[in-house]
Every structure is written in C-alpha cells, then in structure tokens.
Design goal:
Layout lengths: L4 E12 L5 E11 L2 E5 L11 E4 L4 E11 L2 E10 L2 E10 L2 H22 L78 E7 L2 E6 L14 E7 L3 H9 L12 E9 L4 E8 L11 E11 L5 E7 L12 E2 L1 E15 L2 E13 L9 H12 L1 H10 L26 H4 L10 H6 L27 H14 L16 E2 L8 E4 L6 E3 L3 H4 L2 E3 L6 E10 L13 H7 L3 E9 L4 E10 L7 H7 L2 H5 L2 E9 L2 H7 L4 E2 H4 L1 E7 L2 E7 L4 H6 L11 E8 L11 E8 L17
GO molecular function: lipid binding
Keywords: Endoplasmic reticulum
Protein name: Protein ENHANCED DISEASE RESISTANCE 2-like
Length: 720
C-alpha cells in the first residue's frame, strides 16, 4: 500500500450471503492514511487486497452492535461512504475492546480526510483526551438496493432498528438532569436531590429511592430504586458480565436462576426470558419470571447503558408454575472512573422499578422491597467478582445465550415456542413502529463535559461576566421584525401550562462555548438569538416531506416576499406515518464574513461538521428527562442532513431515520410525547478563537405535542 499504515491486524469479516445466511471469515485488515483494505493473509510485497475503500470526509463508521453467528457473538462495525452507500466494508471483532480501537482509528483518518478536503482553512482546536479523538460515530440504516449481497449485514436492509418494540418503549433513566445544574457535568453524579433520596447503605452500596410519585402505575408497582457502587474493572469487562446469561452470572447475581434469548431484534436490541431466584418465603410464594426487551449502547465518554422494560412476545407466553412480573423500567449504567493503584475502576448504577404481580404484592410491601433489594445487590456481586479475578490480560469473548425456541422451556403456547425462528427478523408489529425516532445525546460534539483523564478548569467569574455583557451588546438588533405576518399550523402560546403549542425558549437556558473556550473549556449562557423564530409547522404524510420551504404560504415564502433571510429546519420522523416538525427562523440580512454566513453559503461537508443541537426536557417524567440529557449534538455527524439553498433561504432536512442509534432512541419518548415539554437550541459550532463565543441561531420549546394535530401539507412537486 502506498499510504502510511495507521493500524492493522486480524479482524472478522462479517456479512450475509444471497440465501440470507450470515458468514464470518478471518481477514487481515490494513488501515492507511487514505485507504482501508483487507487480505486473506498478512500482505507481503505488492499483494493485491480482496477489497479496498477510500477513506475521506464523506465516510462514516456505523456501530452495528452485537451479531450472532453459529453460537458466536461478534461486535460489528460498518464503514461506508455517505455518497456511495453501496460501497462499504463490514468488519467485526470477537471483543468490544478491539472493535473500539478500530473505530477510533478509522474515525481519526476520516477527520484527517475532512480537514484535507477543507484545505485546513479553519483549523479547530478540539480538546482531546486519551484515545478520544473528538468525533462521534455516525450511522445510517438505508442500505442501497445495489449493494453486493455478500456484504449485507442484515437480511432486511430497510428495516430500521429502534428501542420501541411494538407499542412499548424502553426508557433510558441513565441521564439525570436537574435543571439547576443542567449544564454541569452530571455523568458521575449518583443522584439529584430533586428526584432521589438516600434510603440506606448496604454491602458497600448506596441505595436510592425515587421521590416522584407516578399516578399512572398500579399500586403494586414499586417506586424506582437504584444501587450505586464502585467496581474495580474496565467498563468493557463489567458490560460483558451484565450482558451474559450463562453460568458466569450465577457467580455475581444472586437473583438469577435462568435466562434465554427469545428474539434478536438487532445488534443493540434483544428480547429475553429471565427467571428470578427470590428467597422471600419460597415455600409459600410462587417464583417470578420476566419477558423484557433489552437495549444497550456505548456513550462517547466510554460508559455503557443497558436498559430493560417488560413486553409480551408470542414466543414467550406465561410459564406454568411462574407468575409473570413486569419491569416498568430498569437497567445498568457503567461509567469509567480514574484508575486507583494502577487498577481500572468504574461506577455501576443498577436501577429497577418492578411490579412483582400476584394477589398479595400490594398488601405486603416488605415482600416487594426485599426482592427489589436482592436484585439491586447484584452490584455488590459484580464488585466482589471483579476484585477476586486476576485474569485480565485476555478479554473474554462476548457470551451467547440459549435461544428460547430451542430451549426446553414449557409454555401454554407450545406450538408457537416450537415454531421456526429466524434471529433478527422482527414481527409485523415491530416493523410497523420501528421507524419512529428522535435525536438525543448519543451523538455529542467535541466539547464533552465527560473528560475522565483531565478535569475541566474552573471558569473565571469576572471573565465570564464580561463575556456575557459583551455578547449581549453585540446581539442587540438594530430593527425589530414584524412577526405578525408569519404563521404556522402549530399554535404559538407563551403560557406555561399551555398544551400542543410552541414558544421561544430563553437563550440563557443553554450554555455555549465562551470566548476563552480554547484555553479553559469554559461555557457561558447563550444570551439572545441571532434569528427570530416566527412559526412552527407540524406535518404528517404517507411519505417523507422534503423541501417544505417551497410550500405556498409558508413562513419562508412570506419572508422571501418581505426581503428577509430565513433558515428552515425540518426534523423528519419516519414511520408508517411520516411526521415533520418545521421551524422557521428569520433575520434581516446575513452579516458578510460571519460564521453564520459561511455556514449558509458553505459546502455540505462544512455544514455537517458545524450544525449543532442542544436538547433539554424541562418537564416530563424523570425517566425521560434522564434519557434526553443536555449534551450538544453535531447533527451532520449523527444523521443525514440535506441542505437546500433557495432564494434567500436555507432549508435543512434532518432525516432522523438515517441513524441506527438515533432511530432507536425515539422509543424512549415517543410513547409519552404528549406529557413532555422539550427545549431545542440550534447553533453553528465555533471551532476557532475568531469564531468564539458561540451564538444561538434560535431556540424553541414545544409543549405536550399531540400526534393528531399534525396536518397533511400541500406540496407542489419539487422541480429539483
């Protein structure tokens, strides 16, 4: 290879053949400064590779999660070009550590290719720590119909993966947001006093209980409780233990009796059957079992999130002699800590909110609490297991569960249990709801609050105050724009308790990079917006709605008639019914040479590297607030964005369904969207000192949105 070798080694070549069966081959992969190639054996001299792929700024590395092949599980990555999605290489590793190294190396080459494409005109100062290169993985599930079948990693390339299974949602409780500290680093904060209280300390664990009462849950359902402890081990080691359902689990989880795989939905989602081993008067109390969906992800800070929620499945009916318990929400959050005495450490949080069912549960609170504490005590089991294990050199392969359809588990629906089952092929009900999605913190930009090795420096209060005052003076508009001539179908209402409406969110609710961010990583309140939000449309249709700014009577067309510049942000939510929430921002003129002007008139690669979203959920159940978080997200790196530069406007169509992880995350909130108040701020990321401080394009708050209030727009055929 002519290019310099960045990384090389043996990896698993993963794919599917034309008949639908998966295959794996050991191949030698070589990553150069501009090229990825693989060979049957380690290359010598001028050996020709089996396949090559040019790595540039248009490439992405997609995390395909865990895949099963003949009893083995591998961690799959897919490298592809956004402009030529049929050209891709799917590779896998036996352990997560090796896959993550390859992912980091490939993303580093992609970033270097992006800088070369931009001519290094604007060199960023990104703050980096350890192996974190500041870039997040981006992903897409839209496989081309012209793809070689041998390279396909899914028998159903158009099937989008998600966290919603049927009409159920897996709630992510791992991102606690206390609005008073919403812009602080809360990753390792065990609890917020607003939502949790310390119940007791037991076996070296802190046990917390949820404070908020939830009206819609039955009396027999417990309050959410979580155990927090420190385990000496890497996050990868602990994650692999948590994901296991084999004999190893008996060594650390005293509530585990039996576990089996019911259905593998995709690399991040599976449906499991689980029998509990509870010791509360077993002679008189029937044993409990569970059928639940498990979703997992790895965050950019190296932490792992594993989420549980009960659901019904046709291949996992009620079992004779067992009472089917119900998990309202639960899971693990595994976060890295600084090593101590040369040994890796991680904070493990285990949350569970469960209804054990049965006639006496609502009347015997001691039974519910005793069993819940027994399950939470597994964190102490993890700690002791890792403390007594010295074999850390060779990372274990990811364990495999027994498929329930082949296990000898009796059921009232025996015929269905013995029916043939194809892993990774969801039911029709799953397929109908799989395309709903929302953007969340899974794709965060480079200015993470989660820097483990080097803590963020304290900001100078006087310097921050001067930044805020100066920014406020710069943002004072010369002339006000008459907003009465603009309208959208979603109602504008400034009342706090209004429903199915929008209002402008205060800029100071969000924190952005300060003038001195490149030196001390400090952030300041965002202040006033650069543009005015004048209207919001809430659309639905049987197909995706692109280029909505061309619609006659839209706020963009009204702005055009008045000689104003407008930016249209169209958040596209796919599904059996497609939805679009469209925000219209206007201003008098673009300032020549400004960062916003360069963004509007730049190429797509520059736009993708700069468009940022900051989300927040000020009102909603605690479990949803935790799932959304407030970490900034670079939209262009997370999902596919289509930019349409029209006459005096720029429309950005954000295809949320193009991302594997983002498409999954909507399941965390879509089922309870009418109970939520969501804030979103849009801005162009500042990467150099002359671009700082950052300024918001605009911010919006949408409250208790009803799906039924969306209308079908009248769109003329797009001439382009």
């Amino acid at each position: 290879m002519s290019s310099k070798v960045v990384y090389e080694g043996w990896m698993v070549r993963y794919g599917r053949r034309k008949i639908g069966r998966s295959f794996i081959h050991m191949r030698y992969f070589v990553l150069g400064s501009r090229l990825l190639a693989y060979y049957k054996r380690k290359p010598q001299d001028n050996q020709v590779p089996i396949q090559t792929m040019v790595i540039d700024g248009n490439c992405r590395v997609e995390d395909r999660g865990l895949k099963t092949h003949h009893g083995h599980m591998v961690y799959v990555l897919c490298v592809y070009n956004k402009k030529e999605k049929h050209h891709r290489i799917t590779m896998a590793a036996w352990n997560i550590q090796e896959a993550l190294i390859w992912k980091e190396k490939i993303e580093l080459v992609i970033d270097q290719g992006s800088q070369v494409a931009n001519g290094n005109k604007y060199v960023s100062f990104e703050y980096k720590s350890g192996m974190d290169n500041g870039r997040t993985a981006s992903s897409s599930d839209h496989e081309s119909q012209f793809s070689a079948q041998e390279d396909e990693d899914d028998a159903h390339p158009n099937l989008l993966r998600r966290t919603t299974i049927g009409n159920e949602s897996v709630f992510d409780w791992t991102r606690e947001i206390d609005l008073e500290f919403s812009n602080q680093n809360t990753n390792n904060q065990a609890f917020s006093r607003k939502y949790w209280r310390l119940l007791q300390c037991q076996n070296g664990l802190r046990i917390f209980e949820e404070l908020v009462e939830v009206d819609y849950l039955p009396r027999s359902c417990s309050r959410a409780m979580k155990a927090v402890g420190v385990v000496e081990g890497t996050c990868e080691e602990i994650f692999e233990l948590v994901m296991s359902m084999d004999g190893t689990r008996f060594e650390w989880d005293c509530s585990f009796q039996y576990g089996s795989l019911v259905e593998e939905v995709d690399g991040h989602t599976a449906i499991l059957y689980h029998r509990l081993q509870l010791d509360w008067f077993p002679m008189f109390v029937w044993p409990r079992d569970l059928c639940y969906v498990r979703y997992w992800r790895r965050n950019d800070d190296g932490s792992y999130v594993v989420l549980f929620r009960s659901r019904e499945h046709e291949n996992c009916g009620p079992q004779p002699g067992y009472v089917r318990a119900h998990i309202e929400s639960g899971g693990f959050n595994i976060s890295p800590l600084k090593p101590r005495n040369g040994r890796p450490r991680a904070q493990v949080q285990h949350l569970m909110q469960i209804d054990l069912k049965g006639w006496g549960v609502g009347y015997m609170s001691s039974f519910q609490q005793h069993c819940l504490l027994q399950m939470l005590n597994s964190v102490a089991g993890l700690r002791e297991w890792c403390a007594q294990t010295d074999e850390r050199n060779a990372p274990p392969r990811i364990p495999v569960m027994v498929n329930m359809t082949s296990a000898s588990v009796s059921s009232e629906k025996g015929e269905k249990l013995n029916a043939s089952f194809h892993p990774g092929v969801p039911t029709d009900q799953i397929n109908a709801t799989s395309r709903n999605s929302v953007m969340m913190e899974e794709y965060s930009d480079e200015d993470e609050e989660y820097q483990i090795a080097e803590p963020e420096q304290e900001a100078d209060p006087s310097r921050l105050e001067s930044d805020i005052k100066r920014t406020a003076l710069e943002e004072e508009p010369a002339d006000e724009i008459d907003l009465t001539c603009f309208s959208g179908n979603l109602r504008h209402d400034d009342r706090d308790k209004a429903r199915d409406c929008w209002k402008i969110s205060e800029g100071n609710n969000f924190r952005v990079r300060s003038k001195h961010f490149c030196y001390n990583k400090t952030k300041i309140p965002a202040g006033k917006h650069l543009m005015d939000l004048v209207a919001v449309d809430w659309f639905k249709d049987t197909k995706r709605m692109d280029h909505v700014a061309r619609r006659q009577g839209s706020a963009a067309q009204v702005a055009l008639e008045k000689g104003l510049f407008s930016m249209v942000i169209n958040l596209q939510v796919p599904g059996s019914t497609h939805y679009s929430m469209v925000f219209y921002f206007v201003m008098k003129d673009l300032v020549p040479g400004s960062l916003l002007q360069r963004f509007v008139d730049g190429d797509d690669e520059f736009r993708n590297s700069r468009l940022k979203l900051i989300p927040s959920v000020p009102k909603g159940s605690w479990i949803v607030r935790q799932s959304v978080g407030s970490t900034p997200c670079l939209l262009g790196k997370a999902v596919d964005c289509n930019y349409i530069r029209g006459p005096n406007y720029l429309e950005i169509d954000v295809d949320i369904g193009s991302s594997t992880v983002a498409n999954g995350v909507l399941g965390l909130v879509i089922g309870v969207i009418t109970t939520l108040v969501v804030d979103m701020a849009f801005l162009v990321q500042a990467n150099t000192t002359d671009e700082l401080p950052e300024r918001l394009i605009g911010a919006v708050r949408v409250s208790h949105i009803e799906l039924s209030s969306a209308i079908v727009p009248k769109l003329e055929p797009d001439p382009s």
